[in-house]
Amino acid sequence: MARFVQLVVDGLATGSIYAALALAIVLVNRATGLINFAQGSMAVFSTYIAFSFVQTGLPVAVAILLAVVVSFFFGAFIERVVIRRFEGGSHDVAVVVTVGLFVLLAGISGWLWSYNHREFPSLFPLDSVPVAGAAVGLRNIGTIVTVVAVMGLLQLLFLKTKLGLALRAVSGNQTSSALSGLPVGRLLMIGWGLAAALGAIGGALVAPKLFLTPSMLDFALVYALAAAILGGLDSPVGAVVAAWFIGVAENLAGGYISFIGDDLKIAVPMALMFLILVVRPQGLFGHREVVRV
Fold it and tell me: Which residue spans traverse the membrane (predicted)?
């Protein structure tokens, strides 16, 4: 029982890291209709900003909060200067641009802060508490709680606020939204800014578990994209649930199925994800698109 609890909690904590990036991907998709492949590099860049604030002597919580604010304006700047030039055209071209941004921002991070491994301080204590015979780290608990809080705020944003409704309208049809009087350009900037701020939170959560490097989130981005698609690209709740599913499934498979181990454990949630998407192509919590002809 203790081993099971340990594997589940560790899986939820790992899945929460994927979920933080997946939420940012969902946010950009709901605001612009695009999938942002540069989200990982943007999150790493924001984490380096937080690291720079920490080096000035600021408490880690204050440094992360300042990085979140700076990242909002950074994301808005990226949308205004780069992405907007390709909006209104082919989505395929815009997606390729985000891939280019992924490479560019990784290179800029390495140029500014070097490719050396850096230690990033943890926002939460490193102590553990006993739960059903297992030692559950407070950092894992803090990561899970943070992601749940962010998910709840995003859900409230999209369902209960005028800004969220406007973002959804712009994602559905920018031309109709503009004709309705919505400030489409400003809303797109806000969407990208919020996604960049979420990336800063995700980077700050994962950096203490790994060494801070420009490629820190490259692998996590693959899991985050999988979680966003599995949960439904229009559902913050779905992204988090799917990320938890991936984290827990791979942990349990690696812990209990001997021939899988650590090397093949990722194949288990990916295979299950394939089966689920065959039945529900729109994802677990996504909405089926209805087109009138």
Answer: 7-28, 34-51, 58-78, 93-115, 136-158, 187-207, 219-246, 266-285
Neighbours of 222 (CB within 10 A): 15
The two three-digit tokens of residue 64, written as one number: 């992360």
The number of C-alpha atoms within 13 Å of 237 and in the hemisphere containing its C-beta is 10
Model pTM score: 0.86
Q: How far apart (Å, rounded) are the C-alpha atoms in residues 37 and 178?
A: 27
Maximum C-alpha span of the chain = 61
DSSP state of 118: B
Name the phi and psi angles at 46, rounded to 5.
-65, -35
Structure tokens at 117: 């491994």
Q: Can you give 125-156 as a three-state secondary structure string?
A: CCCEEEECCEEEEHHHHHHHHHHHHHHHHHHH
In tens, the pLDDT along 162-208 reads 888 888 887 767 777 777 788 888 888 888 899 899 889 988 988 88
Nearest by Cα to 42 from 182, 177, 197, 232 = 197
Task: Choose the weakest-confidence range: 14-18, 201-205, 284-288.
Answer: 284-288
| In contact, 199 and 39? CB cutoff 8 Å | yes
92 CB-near residues (< 8 Å, 6+ apart): none
Residue extents of the structural domains in the chain: 22-217
